[in-house]
Amino acid sequence: MAVVTAVTMAGCGKPSIPTDACRVDKAAVLTPAYSDSLTLPVNIAPLNFCVEGGRETVVCITAPNGQQLVTDGLETDFPVDDWHRLLAAAQGDWLTVDIYQRNDTWQQLRSLHWYVAPDSIDPYLVYRLIEPSYVAYEKLTIEQRSLESFDTQVLYDNMAQSQGENGQCVNCHSFQQWNTTGRWQLHFRQNFGGTLVAQGDRLERIAIQSEQQGDGGVYVRGGVYPSWHPTQPLIAYSVNTTGQNFHTRDAQKVEVLDYASHLILYDAEKRTASYICRDSAMQTFPSWTPDGRRLYYCETQFRFQTSDVDTEMANRYQEVHYDVLARSFDPSTRSFGPAEKVIDAQGRSATVPRLSPDGRYLLYTLADYGNFHIWHRSADLHMLDVLTGDSVDVAVLNSPEVESWHSWSSNGRWIVFSTRREDGNYTRPYIAYFDRTGRAHRPFALPQRTAHHSQLLLRSYNVPELIVRPVEPSAYAIGQVCRREATEVTLQ
Amino acid sequence: MRKSGSSLSLLLGSVVATLFAAAVGAGVYGTQADVLWKHYQRNLWMGDADYLFECLSQPGGLVSYVGRWLAEWLATPCQAAVVAAVGFGLLAVVVQWAFRLRGAVAFLSAAVVCALLANTVQLGYMLYVLKVAAPAFTPLVGTALAVVLFGITDRLPLRLWLYAVTVGVVGVLSYGLLGGYTLLYIALVVFGSIPRRGKAAWMLAALVMQCLIVAIWTLAPRVFTGLNPDLVFMAGLPDYLLTGDEASLWYPLYVAFGLLLALAVVGPWMTARQGKLGWIGQSLLTILVVAASVEGVRASTFSDPDFRATLRAEQAMERGDWQGVIREINAAHCEPTRAMVMLRGLALTLTGQSLDHHFQYADGSHAYRCPRQAQMLRLMLSRQLYFHYGKVNYSYRWTMEDKVEYGLSREQLRYFIRCSLLNGEWALAQKYIATLRRVPGSEAEAARYAALVGRASAVVDDAEFAHILPLMAYNNGLDGDGGLIEIYLLRNFGLMNGGGAELVELSLLANLIEKDADMFWRHLAVYARHHETLPRHLQEAALMWGQLQGIDITGLPIDEAVAGEFAQLVDRAATLGDAQAANDPSLRAQFGQTYWYYYFFVKNLKTN
């Protein structure tokens, strides 16, 4: 009778829960691997997934008030509005995810429980899509994805400015205050190279003059890793001379290494740039505190001992270790204080320091050596409680594969970070809750419209950045600005 | 009776013209199996909606989608012939219909077909550098669609102003599907309006054309975010350079498009008036068109023994037929390119023959007959050579670089999977296998690789991988090849310290090729400790360097015959100067297959 009912209801088009299912203590194998005890933002897009191994599947998600969302088919396809209603009904409480699978008979697999946090996540995620390639680049896109749905907009496509051998690399999108102020920037290399700086409706392309380093003839290039000051029209950049080598045997495949790097400060109003520090050490990854009165960055004391820097770096690359330092900043005088060590990496290498919006928690990436940690399997996320000086346990965020670039949400409750945990080569953004008690929760993969999207996508997500307000200029408008004459800015 | 007889002869002409076009297409594609095999390997098509949307997100998306699907049928000569017959036969039908060609005049449709065939068969090595999707079929598809659109809009019984609006709307909307072929459609409309709708219509059409061009040029980059405004009307067309050495590559397309434009103007008129030529005149016209078309295809066909030999050798390599690789390279009977030398060298190594026979074969560095010479070896064989020589990371690297530059192909997927399996990157291998499963006809291949995931011992024992693993027994280091495949391999192996038997042999071979005596002695010492006899080339080198450097080699197992031969060489060379010796036919005949000849007389080989 129950079978007939289920079949009848199925024949009516509305999925029904199999009432004759036998409960088994077996975990469902999901793609993506959404696990138990996830914490979700109330405004997140549906977590569509596929239950592997069955001929038929029914998934029923139930809110505490009894509201349900039922879907059948080999993959879930939760309607966005229904999903949001369900999450709103479960805000601050738990959803129960019941999974039914049939091969010969219906079985109810082990249920999952997902907590819906009272905190929303910023509605947009901006990232670069790029193959995990080495030298060649062709189609690079900067995309803006709504986290509340699956809507994606291409903010910029480098092919619009590339022609034949004269390509254009685009990277390092960066926003002031999650784009609430309309200030953001984008960096281009090769054809129409320079930096696009946007301040509201005003877009311009600047070219920071390169110059020669005194020692070893190593050239320092224009601004690479950016960090907008939280309130002022200032951008701290690292200027890096970067090289790339290839592992002959190691499955990590690539080493991207800096041969020289310093920090500069660019004034977007005055169009001037000056060194923050310029000594024999190498500095990179600047990051402002939320009050704009301190600048965090990474520094290594690695020195070349010969003039054959390429061979030397190939032999000594594992000796390159970065610590996290900070300098005070006086906004009125635009002056920096002396450097203070914040994190002694103790023989390892710390990069990408980023402070939570409340200024208390410093999230950074730690690996065995080097600075381009997306290629280092040893790279994990770590966190320091700046107030107490204690380490915060964020092991739940990490995996045996790479965890690297990360971004805080504007309310400090969500972290988005890059990881290669799915296959070791392609970077994917994962989202994790960080609650008010300072505890990190189990991360989950960025939801996609189809369950196998991530597995089939042969490109990596680079530099995931959360923003509150969407970027407004069209890709075409940005491209037109690229083609205009760049304003040259000389490093002072 | 006369009228029906005339209609019958007109129909017969059309049918025969179509059959001729189909036959030429089938004949060309059916006999270019080697080349079209490479087209097939460099192609990829998926049947799901995601792939369709991905194609349609670029201008000319429909052309590339259909073109890629057609290229999937190039797997075998028989399939290639059938799909070419159908495709090019249909194009002939479409051209006849659009321009109202009948009878002998219908053979001009076959001339268009032959021009497009010429565009395909001329490619040769350009196949490795073109980024346009499925070059064997996209010009056919784009041209056919443009002609169909013209035929449809031309037949619409609309007032002039409405016709102009219709053409404008169709032109703008079709750009997304046809890309640069939209310009062909627009031009056909303008030219076609000359005879059919009068002067006013022609002027209006010309105006509409200009407006359309401006509209598309303005709107398209705003709709397609990755479209370079400078290349709006090149989207989907072959990416030959317009000037310089590649300018002539455009000629077949110029002929095809020029013929179509001419037919737009005079096609119906020719059909109506061909009866005045009489059957002799029509027959002569037919013969002329057929002869010119066939000759055009023949003259355009890229005929290069190096190229064909390399492709056949590569196919043998994919089958694991290493003797077949050697056979195909040697069958070319011409100065080899470095690609050929390297393929043969790889085959000799993997069959254990290199140290006995490598220098028996003619060496050379014949230039690739291609307007673009940069990194030709890298483009042709980097992933294959690196893979089989155990440089798996480098094989993966160049496969990825090519995927970025030229788009994903089945060949790249295969190497992604192979490299991932060899590296024990199981999850990564599964990812690529999942993609391969989306490619129709690849299910069996995907299943075969899937069975190896997570089973390192199975990979070790698999015939496809077994010979590579011993070559991977070296320590990791940071390095780079700069795109110079042969030089990197020679230096890498030549300077290697230690290693298993296979690596030591490769080191010795590299030392011989590079004429590096110091490293030769070092590696020979290792080799001799583990072998009671020496391969021929090692004996030759030891004798030669022993004498040149005054090194005592009496402890080495040198065959009397080899020693005797060396003594003869010394005597002969003493009687000749260097310049004479290099070209002396008797010296070459007697010693041309020894290392000595290579060492003294083979110089200035260019590689990358």
Question: Helix segment count of chain B?
Answer: 29
**What value does the average pLDDT of chain A take?**
91
Terminal residue distance of chain B:
72 Å
Average of pLDDT of chain B:
92
Outline type of chain A: globular
Q: In what range is the share of β-strand residues of chain B?
A: under 5%
- SSE sequence of chain B, one letter per element: HHHHHHHHHHHHHHHHHHHHHEHHHHHHHH
Helix content of chain A: under 10%
Biggest chain-to-chain interface with counts:
A-B, 48 and 42 residues
Evaluate the radius of gyration of chain A.
Answer: 24 Å
Individual helix count of chain A: 5
Helix and strand layout, with pairings?
The complex is a heterodimer of chains A (492) and B (608).
Chain A: H1 2-11, E1 22-23, E2 30-31, E3 38-40, E4 50-51, E5 56-62, E6 68-72, H2 80-89, E7 93-102, E8 106-108, E9 112-116, E10 124-130, E11 141-146, E12 152-157, E13 168-175, E14 183-190, E15 194-199, E16 202-208, E17 211-212, E18 219-220, E19 223-228, E20 234-247, E21 254-267, E22 272-277, E23 282-288, E24 294-300, H3 309-316, E25 322-330, E26 335-343, E27 349-355, E28 361-367, E29 380-385, E30 391-392, E31 403-408, E32 414-419, E33 428-433, E34 444-445, H4 453-456, E35 460-467, H5 475-483, E36 487-489
Parallel strand pairs in A: 1-8, 3-9, 16-36
Antiparallel strand pairs in A: 2-4, 5-6, 5-7, 7-8, 7-9, 10-11, 10-35, 11-12, 13-14, 14-15, 15-16, 17-18, 19-20, 20-21, 21-22, 23-24, 24-25, 25-26, 27-28, 28-29, 29-30, 31-32, 32-33, 33-34
Chain B: H1 2-31, H2 33-41, H3 49-56, H4 61-71, H5 77-98, H6 107-121, H7 138-154, H8 160-178, H9 181-223, H10 251-273, H11 278-300, H12 305-319, H13 322-330, H14 338-350, H15 354-357, H16 376-388, H17 392-406, H18 410-422, H19 426-437, H20 443-450, H21 456-461, E1 478-479, H22 485-494, H23 501-514, H24 517-530, H25 536-549, H26 560-575, H27 578-583, H28 585-591, H29 595-601
Helix pairs in contact in B: 1-5, 1-6, 2-12, 3-4, 4-7, 5-6, 5-7, 6-10, 6-11, 7-8, 7-9, 8-9, 9-10, 12-13, 12-14, 13-14, 14-16, 16-17, 17-18, 18-19, 19-20, 22-23, 23-24
